[in-house]
């Protein structure tokens, strides 16, 4: 915190006499901080980022390219304070401001995503190569997006062609994580297993965009592969039981923690046709297939297939009013696929159906009224329910919402709204929201209140599953929906050289649903735990030091406690991000240097366990401790003629490796180098045509 405060104070004093409106550098700085970006996620209507009362962060395609990121997890960890990912036994888990994936809603072009595991979506589906921008809204957004949006929304907006023809081809090659089987024998019945485990770290992408006036098309194809690896503990776990005042030092775990390898392909298509200035129709579809290769030599691997499709009709009733009809379906299936024989067996199927009607009008003076109705049906088919046989569970939810965006004065904006849901099991629920923006240039204040709710998931209600004899997960049909009240106050300062924000937030939950471990970490049972408080302070500062050189610092402090004083969240109380960025341009050439780091502070949390005391086994909480660490990345990106982009970089620059590997520590294998190249084929064609004309 001292670093952020010092940075802000020092920069304010340097810029005290700078008039940002008259500064020639102001537009250059605005490009870096994205305040002129038009966003839609926070209010469901187009609004410049600087003018939205709801706290929103934007990451653009240009920033993703310059910083060398290839997957959503590394990107968000380096760019969003208070957000982290962990590799857990069933895959990848996210945490943002003390809340996990069941409270954070991921969207692609405003639509929900099927195929969750442990409440987390399949993050490998999120293709950074076709991203136009990512909008991140922190805090309860249930009044706009319903259940699961209690902690925030991450909306990935995909690209649309701006020119007549846009053709991009690219690839990325990274250093291997680990070579487990250097010389697999084709004669061995383990040949496919060994080959798949050691897949190369390779990405290949192609993108074709057409803008032919009324007709627009966007086609994207991405292939990725990643080699699995195993990590070993180099230290032992110490357990302290406060209520017993007892410390137990465990033997060092000698079995490895395994991170599965994979390969996948992602194909997406968008089409739109504008009939006239009143009517437009859009179609979209995608196909995705993921093969996941673990280290279990049982001659089978996990195969995941997703198919989504949707349609949208935009109709302008008059110049001030617009009506949108949309339908979207996402279908995710998981199979056991075999290495030595043909065929596969279905083990999981998740389907979402989401029709919507949205109406917005600016007919009222200085107001934008938005209202809509939505329907969401989810079905889950799998073998993780009580019968241990393949079985289907379903639930549905219907919604109506209204929002009024009132521009009271040029410097005063008020947004109020309410969402009313009817859930087939839990009945009616109302979620109000209120957002206020007041600007006294160069300062902007934002005040937000929102109520949220989340109905229990199908797994939380009905799961009864034995995971390979290692642990058992039990659902609870008597669960009640979670509810929360979110309040935040934010201040923003912007000049030609400094952008700074300070946000205080609080999140009060009732009937929060948690999975509680017991019986020596072999049983997890879902239960409502009463009241939970999450609160924190988030500070950011982005400074333009000299022309082309920028320093960004972000810090998040989190307070979390249940009503009984037991701390169950595994989020670190203190986390932050820092980035030093330098760019320069010459004729037909520009370059960008990025050094970025994420800091995860030490954390202590309570774990339910069993301990033997005086010959009697009893349950008790022990304090788990994870030390602080930081992860740094470096990327050097060059652009030639705006047609060729070459990036070389290093992930985990300082080669950090955790001494104990578990669900709450880093699972990085260490320092890895990579190189990427992207060709804008349409620009190359233009260059060659110009050269021919010159000759």
Number of domains: 1
Kindly report how far apart the N and C termini lie. 60 Å
Task: Quickly give the CATH architecture.
Answer: Beta Barrel
Helix/strand-derived class? mainly beta
- In total, the number of strands is 42
Range of helix content: under 10%
CATH superfamily: TonB-dependent receptor, beta-barrel domain
Shape: globular
Q: What average pLDDT do the residues reach? A: 86
CATH class wording: Mainly Beta
Strand portion:
over 45%
Structure description:
With 695 residues, this protein is mainly β. The protein has one domain (2-694): Beta Barrel (Maltoporin, Chain A), CATH 2.40.170.20. The chain is built from eight helices and 42 strands. The chain has a 22-stranded antiparallel barrel, surrounded by four helices. Strands 3-9-10-7-8 form a five-stranded mixed sheet. A four-stranded mixed sheet has the order 28-29-33-32. Strand 20 (300-318) and strand 21 form a beta hairpin. The longest helix is centred in the C-terminal third of the chain and has 14 residues, at 681-694. The chain is globular and about 75 Å long. 38% of the residues are buried.
């Amino acid at each position: 915190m001292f670093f952020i405060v010092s940075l802000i104070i020092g920069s304010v004093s340097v810029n005290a006499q700078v008039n940002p409106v008259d500064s020639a550098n102001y537009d250059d700085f605005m490009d870096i901080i994205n305040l002129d970006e038009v966003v839609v996620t926070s209010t469901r209507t187009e609004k410049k980022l600087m003018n939205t009362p709801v706290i929103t962060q934007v990451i653009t395609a240009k920033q993703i390219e310059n910083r060398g990121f290839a997957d959503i997890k590394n990107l968000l960890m380096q760019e969003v304070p208070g957000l982290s990912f962990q590799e857990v036994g069933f895959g990848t888990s996210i945490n943002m401001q003390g809340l996990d994936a069941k409270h954070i809603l991921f969207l692609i072009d405003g639509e929900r995503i099927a195929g969750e595991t442990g409440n987390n979506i399949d993050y490998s589906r999120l293709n950074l190569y076709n991203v136009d921008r990512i909008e991140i809204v922190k805090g309860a957004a249930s009044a706009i997006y319903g259940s699961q949006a209690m902690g925030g929304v991450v909306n990935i907006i995909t690209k649309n062609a701006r020119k007549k023809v846009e053709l991009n081809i690219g690839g990325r090659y990274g250093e291997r994580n680990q070579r487990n089987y250097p010389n697999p024998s084709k004669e061995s019945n383990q040949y496919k297993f060994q080959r798949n485990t050691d897949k190369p770290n390779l990405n290949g992408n192609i993108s074709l965009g057409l803008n032919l006036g009324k007709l627009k098309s966007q086609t994207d194809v991405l292939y990725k592969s990643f080699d699995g690896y195993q990590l070993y503990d180099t230290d032992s776990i110490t357990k302290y039981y406060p209520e017993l005042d007892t410390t137990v030092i465990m033997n060092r775990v000698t079995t490895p923690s395994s991170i599965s390898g994979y390969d996948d392909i992602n194909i997406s298509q968008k089409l739109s046709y504008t009939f006239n200035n009143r009517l437009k129709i859009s179609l979209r579809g995608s196909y995705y297939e993921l093969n996941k290769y673990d280290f279990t030599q049982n001659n089978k691997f996990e195969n995941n297939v997703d198919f989504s499709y949707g349609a949208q009709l935009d109709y302008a009733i008059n110049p001030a009013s617009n009506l949108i009809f949309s339908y979207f379906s996402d279908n995710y299936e998981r199979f056991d696929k075999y290495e030595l024989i043909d065929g596969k067996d279905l083990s999981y199927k998740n389907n979402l159906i989401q029709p919507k009607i949205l109406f917005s009008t600016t007919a009222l003076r200085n107001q934008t009224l938005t209202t809509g109705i939505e329907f969401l049906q989810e079905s889950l088919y799998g073998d993780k329910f009580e019968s241990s046989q393949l079985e289907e569970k379903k639930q549905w939810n219907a919604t109506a919402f209204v929002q009024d965006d009132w521009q009271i004065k040029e410097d005063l904006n008020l947004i109020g709204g309410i969402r009313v849901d009817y859930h087939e099991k839990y009945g009616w629920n109302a979620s109000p929201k209120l957002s206020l923006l007041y600007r006294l240039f160069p300062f902007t204040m934002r005040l937000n209140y929102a109520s949220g709710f989340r109905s229990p998931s199908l797994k939380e209600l009905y799961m009864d599953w034995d995971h390979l004899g290692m642990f058992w997960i039990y659902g609870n049909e008597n669960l009640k929906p979670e509810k929360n009240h979110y309040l935040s106050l934010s201040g923003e300062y912007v000049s030609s050289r400094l952008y700074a924000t300070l946000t205080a937030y609080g999140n009060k939950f009732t009937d929060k649903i948690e999975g509680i471990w017991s019986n020596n970490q072999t049983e997890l049972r879902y239960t409502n735990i009463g009241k939970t408080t999450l609160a924190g302070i988030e500070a950011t500062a982005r400074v333009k030091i000299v022309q082309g050189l920028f320093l960004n610092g972000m810090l998040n402090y989190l307070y979390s406690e249940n009503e009984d004083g037991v701390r169950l969240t595994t989020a670190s109380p203190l986390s932050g991000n820092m980035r030093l960025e330098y760019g320069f341009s010459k004729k037909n050439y520009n370059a960008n240097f990025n050094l970025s780091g994420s800091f995860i502070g030490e954390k202590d949390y309570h774990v339910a366990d069993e301990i033997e005391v005086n010959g009697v086994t009893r349950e008790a909480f022990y304090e788990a401790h994870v030390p602080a660490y930081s992860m740094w990345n470096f990327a050097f990106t060059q652009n030639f003629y705006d047609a060729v982009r070459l990036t070389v970089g290093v992930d985990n620059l300082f080669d950090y490796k955790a001494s104990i590997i578990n669900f709450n520590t880093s699972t990085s294998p260490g320092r890895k180098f990579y190189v990427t190249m992207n060709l804008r084929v349409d620009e190359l064609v233009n260059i060659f045509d110009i050269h021919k004309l010159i000759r």
